[in-house]
Specification:
Number of helices: 4
CATH architecture: Beta Barrel
Structural class: alpha+beta
Strand content: 25-35%
Radius of gyration: 17 Å
């Protein structure tokens, strides 16, 4: 398995960058499924709330993005105009040498592909790392978690004192309970290389307007409904390939 690029290894080795990357990490307090990003501040004008009807978008003849109830939590609908339709979930033709069940992340296009049989893939729109936090390489899903807790590092709390009022004492320290307001969203998949946690995650987001953009601290964000869909498909041990950001593949 290849390692992260030299650029990312340098980031992880630097204390300041390491603190930023760790902002996407969380300690799991409920039993995870195992193999043995932080959300950016809202845009200056706040989240883009579309004018007009508030019904959820429906694509490919199915209501992928309607409101949902899950584990006692409410997952809000994705409203028309909240996410560019180019980043809605879609089954597409996809030519790759990767085996079915592999996840291929294309940061340049802001797409994640779940490789399927017959030259097909389910394509999801994603948000990726901003300038200086992009990464590339291969990893494995070590564990998965529904509605994960989030533990921001102290360096992040120092940079974002507004977070303090949202944190409580949890099993592993100050953090935020899993739920609709949690930056990790409804699902998280934890990426490891061998016995090393990369600190990168594929996870949902409570900021769907960031999908299709490069605003995270390196983690891969998905619309919550999409994260839940991928979570069901991708098993523990699944291979994850993150392409270089300057390579565009459909």
């Amino acid at each position: 398995m290849s390692s992260l690029t030299r650029r990312v290894l340098g980031l992880i080795g630097a204390a300041a960058a390491g603190a930023c990357l760790a902002g996407c990490a969380s300690t799991q307090t409920s039993p995870p499924i195992t193999a043995s990003a932080v959300a950016a501040p809202p845009p200056p004008n706040g989240p883009a709330e579309p004018a007009g009807p508030a019904e959820a978008v429906a694509v490919q003849g199915g209501d992928f993005y309607g409101p949902m109830k899950d584990a006692g939590f409410s997952v809000p609908a994705v409203k028309p105009g909240q996410v560019d339709s180019a980043f809605y979930r879609k089954n597409v033709a996809y030519s790759t040498k990767e085996a079915p069940g592999t996840i291929v992340v294309d940061p340049a296009k802001h797409y994640l592909y779940y490789v399927e049989q017959g030259g097909r893939a389910t394509r999801y729109g994603i948000g990726v790392g901003r300038e200086g936090f992009a990464w590339t390489g291969e990893a494995t899903i070590k564990s998965k978690q529904e509605w994960p807790d989030w533990y921001p590092p102290k360096e992040m709390v120092e940079r974002r004192p507004d977070l303090k009022s949202q944190l409580v004492e949890l099993q592993s320290g100050l953090g935020m309970h899993g739920g609709p307001g949690n930056p990790l969203g409804a699902r998280a998949m934890y990426l490891w290389q061998g016995d090393r946690d990369t600190l990168f995650r594929i996870h949902g987001t409570n900021e769907p307007w960031t999908i299709g953009k490069s605003q995270s601290s390196g983690c891969i964000r998905m619309i919550n409904q999409d994260a839940m869909d991928l979570y069901q498909k991708a098993g523990v041990g699944a291979r994850v390939v993150v392409l270089p950001a300057n390579i565009a593949r459909r």
